[in-house]
Amino acid sequence: MIIKSSQRTVFLVSVAAVAAGIVMISTFIGFAPSSWHALMARTSGSIDSEIIWQIRFPRICLGLLTGAVLAVGGMAFQAVFRNSLATPYTLGISSGASVGAALYMKSGLRMNFAGISGVSVASFIAALGAIGIVYGLTRIGRAFSATTLLLAGVAVSFFFSSVVLFVQYIGDVATSFRVGRWLMGGLEVVGFVPVWQFLPFATLGLATIVGLTRELDLLTFGGEMASARGVAVTRVKKAVFFATSLMVGGAVAVAGPIGFVGLIVPHVGRTLIGPQHRYLAIFCLIAGGAFLVACDTVARTIIAPVEVPVGIITALLGGPFFLVILLKRRTHEVESES
Fold it and tell me: Taking the domains of the chain in order of start, what are their residue ranges?
């Protein structure tokens, strides 16, 4: 049931309050439960204080940023492609980044670049390469259509996935394990350095998408309708493509490929708050981050002291969710035909 226009502000405030509650719960829950005193005693040097400020808070902040990026990116791509099943990884960003990470692990290198891990650098560069390839393929025919972009992304994604499998096959056991673990996604960080490094990409991408919410509303009705209402369709599509690709590439470089966040959160938002993107974008910003933090809290506590990669939790939720969407679409198509 869609919430009425007059209630949307109250609803969004409520969502923000729930998100704040999830953050607080996630702060204190874990294999080593922490107290409020440990949170306040930042300078005490106690183990509990270090766990909160050096492990849990950075992890929560990274989860908030990554979840927001994936949810808003999914919302934007679903509007541009006019396909409710589109996700931030549709264009091969995830598989491209996976190739970079796999090749780096296979090389056996152990390097840092200005405090950034070599895996993150390699995966981000490969993600940018995948973006460039997809964009180049669309320009061969001198057309920047959503259909061409989508098909090119799917083709590139399959190719890169095959490369990752090849690297795993020819690698040793340790390499195969590291690549497989990275492909599951995770928010395991120590300190805020990775968060600060990811923040500029997330901020730039999110600001761009939020600034184009009116155009996204019109694009959902088709390019001709949007153009008739004064939207520079090609320019807007390019802006959405590059902004989303940049911030998602940064997210994958830091946290690995975490699937289904960009599918679940926008769909829930449309069901609760409606399709208007100025409201839906705010919902995705808040709920996307809170959803991923909640999933990560479950992942690190469900079989503690062993931590489950958060990508497994999102996939367990996203798989059935995806099937429900497919069944609803099929039911709607059958009803329309009859």
Answer: 5-337
The predicted model scores a pTM of 0.90
Burial class (CB in 10 A: 0-12, 13-18, 19+), 141: exposed
Q: pLDDT digit string (tens) for 5-49?
A: 778 888 999 999 999 999 988 888 866 656 555 555 555 556 767
Q: How many other C-beta atoms lie within 10 A of the C-beta of residue 317?
A: 17
CATH of 5-337, one of 3.40.50.300, 1.10.3470.10, 3.10.450.50, 3.30.429.10: 1.10.3470.10
Task: Label residue 108 exposed, middle or buried (CB < 10 Å: 0-12, 13-18, 19+).
Answer: exposed
Average pLDDT over every residue of 300-313 = 88
Average pLDDT value for residue range 108-121 = 78
- Specify burial of residue 296 (Cβ count, 10 A radius: 0-12, 13-18, 19+): buried
